[in-house]
């Protein structure tokens, strides 16, 4: 009898120990979900200023034809048989022949090194080699002779005659070019210079005969070149600019229910480039491009604005202004940015995060929990509610609250200030076993909470790359690049996560199929 009662006592003690053990290691934690907070208005506003480059071509062959007409500018400058009188009493003569004028490429005026820089400055006599100048040049061959009377004796000197003929030089013209508000060309002659490649070192009675001859030839050319320049003032690029402006006001489809709106603003003139008888005038359109989702938005119908000739902001200046006044702004002047507001539903975010957390194990003092899933939802007031479910020596779920933020280095969206909600905190402090209270559960969850918005951004980037390279009309086409696209702002609404993404790149639009 006693023996049987002993067995009952031992069994009772074992049952007590078992129940005690279960109560410590099989804790169930189920805090209630926090109440929703008021919804705030989405604070993400504004667009990015962008530049669209539009090269338009002008045929300046009429100007070249006039400059090379011997009735406008002589081909020969013959003052060899009749002496000219210098103001210092020296009689001199000269003969020169020129070839055809051609338009110089800008690359011909680039300098490399101190020596070539000095040569260039002498050639153009300190003319500003900016993007608003047109340079013409013609090879020149010449000879010079002189006679003077000094103390009753006659002095004779010649350069470039007989076996020394000819001496080489170039005849150069610099033409200032600009654009009128109505997209017409405004041109005027800046200077005419003779640049002796093989100078005549003749000085009689302290007279520099090379300078005298240069000045005489320049005077004869100046009037004719002025007349030729007037042919440039009849040129206009307005029709090409209107074609481009009209084509770019239509929504550009990227895919079904996804549209690119350029939102054009102003048109500016930045400078000229030259190639033979064709001059390319580069216009820059300011725009505020956005990607919109849904039904096709209406096209805008604004008329082509007047050309802005003078830049008013260092962020958008002409080529010469940027180089002189704001060199640090030049790279940005070519940037084309597109802003897109992406909505990512919380169900998609929950699935991605749940897969990342599932199976993750957190242990403390010989006990552990293993995460089984996660759910994300909008809490209100730009905050996100995160529920994490777990099982193991304790089971149930916890709630955490955080604010979505953009990590500029990793280009990801994460939850800043992630913390337990008040109900979860109270249970952990009052009823949870000590090992669970001190378990690094929050520390294990925090680095994993990277919200999966990258696929959406990458999808838009790829759509944009394709959308920027297409034909818009029979006369207008686009060529664009997208170097990057990343999130720049984020806002948690109650129903979805709103991410603003912005692309970097460049866009050039051509008219009539010509760059």
How would you explain this protein's 3D organization?
With 515 residues, the protein is an alpha+beta fold. The chain folds into 2 domains: 30-59 and 235-515, Bactericidal permeability-increasing protein, domain 1 (Super Roll); 61-233. The chain is built from 11 helices and 26 strands. It has helices spanning 2-25, 61-67, 113-124, 209-229, 238-247, 319-325, 346-357, 422-430, 434-437, 441-445, 454-467; strands at 27-29, 50-59, 76-85, 91-98, 102-103, 133-150, 153-159, 167-179, 185-196, 203-204, 207-208, 252-255, 258-261, 264-275, 278-287, 290-293, 338-345, 361-364, 367-380, 383-392, 394-407, 412-420, 450-451, 470-473, 476-492, 496-511. The strands form 5 sheets. Strands 1, 18, 19, 20, 21, 22 and 23 form a 7-stranded mixed β-sheet that branches. Strands 3, 4, 5, 6, 7, 8 and 9 form a 7-stranded antiparallel β-sheet that branches. Strands 12-13-16-17-26-25-24 form a 7-stranded mixed β-sheet. α2 crosses α4 (209-229). The termini are far apart. 31% of the residues are buried. Residues 6-24, 107-131 and 310-333 have low confidence and may be disordered.
Summed up, what is this model?
This protein is an alpha+beta fold. Helices cover 24% and strands 43% of the residues. It has two domains: 30-59 and 235-515, Bactericidal permeability-increasing protein, domain 1, CATH 3.15.10.40; 61-233.
Topology:
Blueprint (H helix, E strand, L loop, with lengths): L1 H24 L1 E3 L20 E10 L1 H7 L8 E10 L5 E8 L3 E2 L9 H12 L8 E18 L2 E7 L7 E13 L5 E12 L6 E2 L2 E2 H21 L8 H10 L4 E4 L2 E4 L2 E12 L2 E10 L2 E4 L25 H7 L12 E8 H12 L3 E4 L2 E14 L2 E10 L1 E14 L4 E9 L1 H9 L3 H4 L3 H5 L4 E2 L2 H14 L2 E4 L2 E17 L3 E16 L4
Parallel strand pairs: 1-21, 16-17
Antiparallel strand pairs: 2-15, 3-4, 4-6, 5-6, 6-7, 6-8, 8-9, 10-11, 12-13, 13-16, 14-15, 17-26, 18-19, 19-20, 20-21, 21-22, 22-23, 24-25, 25-26
Helix pairs in contact: 2-4
């Amino acid at each position: 009898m006693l023996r049987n009662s002993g067995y009952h006592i031992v069994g009772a003690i074992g049952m007590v120990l078992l129940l005690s053990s279960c109560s410590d290691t099989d804790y169930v934690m189920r805090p209630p979900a926090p109440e929703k907070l008021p919804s705030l208005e989405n604070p993400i506003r504004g667009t990015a200023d962008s530049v669209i480059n539009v090269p338009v071509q002008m045929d300046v062959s009429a100007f070249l034809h006039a400059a090379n007409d011997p009735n406008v500018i002589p081909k020969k400058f013959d003052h060899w048989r009749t002496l000219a009188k210098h103001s210092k009493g020296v009689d001199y003569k000269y003969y020169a022949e020129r070839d055809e004028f051609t338009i110089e490429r800008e690359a011909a005026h680039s300098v490399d090194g101190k020596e070539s820089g000095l040569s260039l400055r002498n050639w153009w006599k300190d003319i500003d080699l900016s993007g608003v100048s047109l340079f013409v040049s013609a090879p020149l061959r010449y000879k010079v002779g002189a006679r003077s009377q000094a103390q009753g004796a006659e002095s004779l000197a010649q350069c470039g005659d007989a076996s020394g003929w000819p001496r080489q030089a170039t005849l150069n013209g610099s033409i200032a070019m600009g654009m009128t508000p109505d997209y017409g060309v405004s041109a005027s002659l800046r200077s005419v210079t003779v640049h002796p490649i093989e100078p005549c070192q003749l000085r009689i009675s302290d007279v520099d005969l090379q300078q005298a001859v240069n000045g005489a030839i320049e005077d004869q050319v100046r009037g004719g070149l002025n007349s030729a320049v007037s042919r440039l003032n009849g040129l206009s690029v307005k029709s090409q600019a209107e074609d481009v402006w009209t084509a770019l006001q239509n929504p550009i489809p990227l895919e079904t229910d996804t549209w690119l709106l350029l939102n054009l603003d102003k048109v500016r003139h930045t400078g000229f480039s030259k190639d033979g008888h064709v001059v390319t005038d580069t216009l820059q359109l300011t725009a505020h491009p956005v990607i919109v989702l849904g039904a096709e938005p209406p096209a805008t119908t604004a008329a082509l604005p007047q050309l802005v000739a003078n830049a008013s902001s260092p962020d958008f200046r002409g080529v010469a202004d940027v180089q002189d006044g704001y060199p640090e702004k030049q790279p940005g002047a070519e940037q084309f940015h597109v802003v897109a507001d992406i909505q990512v539903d919380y169900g998609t975010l929950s699935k991605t995060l749940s897969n990342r957390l599932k199976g993750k194990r957190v242990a403390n003092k010989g006990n552990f929990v293993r995460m089984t899933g996660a759910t994300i939802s909008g809490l209100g007031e730009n905050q996100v509610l995160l529920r994490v479910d777990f099982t193991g020596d304790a089971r149930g779920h916890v709630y955490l609250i955080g604010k979505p933020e953009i990590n500029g280095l990793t280009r990801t969206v994460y939850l800043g200030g992630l913390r337990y909600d008040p109900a979860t905190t109270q249970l952990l402090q009052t009823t949870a076993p000590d090992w669970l209270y001190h378990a690094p559960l929050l520390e294990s969850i925090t680095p994993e909470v990277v919200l999966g918005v990258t696929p959406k951004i990458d999808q838009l980037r790829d759509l944009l790359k394709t959308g920027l390279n297409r034909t818009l009309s029979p006369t207008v086409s686009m060529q664009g690049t997208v170097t990057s696209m990343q999130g720049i702002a984020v806002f948690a609404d109650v129903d979805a996560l709103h991410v603003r993404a912005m692309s970097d790149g460049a866009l050039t639009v051509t008219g009539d199929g010509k760059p």
